[in-house]
Design a protein that fits this description.
- It holds the Pfam family ABC_tran.
- One of its GO terms (molecular function) is ATP hydrolysis activity.
- This is ATP-binding cassette domain-containing protein.
- One of its GO terms (cellular component) is plasma membrane.
- It contains 7 helices and 9 strands.
- The protein is of the alpha/beta class.
- It has a single domain, classed as Rossmann fold (3-Layer(aba) Sandwich).
- The strands form 2 sheets. Strands 6-7-8-3-9 form a 5-stranded parallel beta sheet, with helices on both faces.
């Protein structure tokens, strides 16, 4: 079976730096939640940026449904990320100048869709994850845990085929962490491939498999 998302012979180094990845190969199938683990500085977050087309590999390929996508142009990559990917960054990566709702709706700017319907679905996600804030609330007015759940809403809004998450439970209490993991599991059951970078043994234990980096 073809992996939903795959890396083949992936290599990367930052300018004048030691290679972080060399000939790295792995596949991530629909329906599974995979933990990527390893010591700090090993390149786990960089790997997510490569898989998510936010960095270009020095060598090798990134494939989606068996099709190479790493060499697409910037516009094509942006559309693919908006239509097929969901991201949860370690620091939530919310735009402080925009409302919480507009942050969640960010990817709708890059894909075709019904803005009114998407706004309704965004509010349903906000309610589900306990961040049903007033319409004009800004990210600077919420806690770190709330910001991470807002980022989760953004990632899930388009029912993505791939979810990439960098330490998604780092700012959450155990109860909130369970809610996030359950959401990832639900999306995987619906056919997504979920890749999580984490140091949390409890989160690793709830994944289908672990890939040490």
């Amino acid at each position: 079976m073809t992996a939903r998302l795959a890396a083949s012979g992936l290599g990367f180094r930052y300018e004048a730096g030691t290679p972080l990845l060399e000939e790295w190969t792995a596949g991530f199938s629909s329906g599974e939640v995979v933990a990527v683990t390893g010591p700090s500085g090993r390149g786990k977050s960089t790997l997510l940026y490569l898989l998510g087309l936010m960095l270009a590999p020095a060598s090798g390929e990134v494939l989606l449904d068996g099709r190479p996508i790493h060499s697409l142009g910037d516009a094509a990559c942006a559309r693919l990320r908006a239509e097929r990917y969901g991201f949860v960054f370690q620091d939530a990566a919310l735009d402080q100048s925009r409302t919480v709702l507009d942050n969640i709706l960010e990817t709708t700017l890059y894909r075709r869709g019904d803005r009114r319907r998407d706004a309704r679905l965004a509010r349903e996600l906000m309610e589900r994850f306990g961040v049903a804030l007033r319409a004009d609330a800004k990210p600077g007015q919420v806690s770190g845990g709330q910001a991470q759940r807002i980022a989760l809403c953004r990632a899930l809004l388009g029912d993505p085929d791939v979810i990439l998450a960098d330490e998604p439970t780092g700012n959450l209490d155990p109860g909130s962490s369970d809610v996030v993991v359950d959401a990832f599991r639900e999306r995987a059951v619906s056919g997504a491939a979920v890749v999580i970078v984490t140091h949390d043994p409890a989160l690793v234990a709830r994944c289908d498999r672990e890939i040490p980096l």
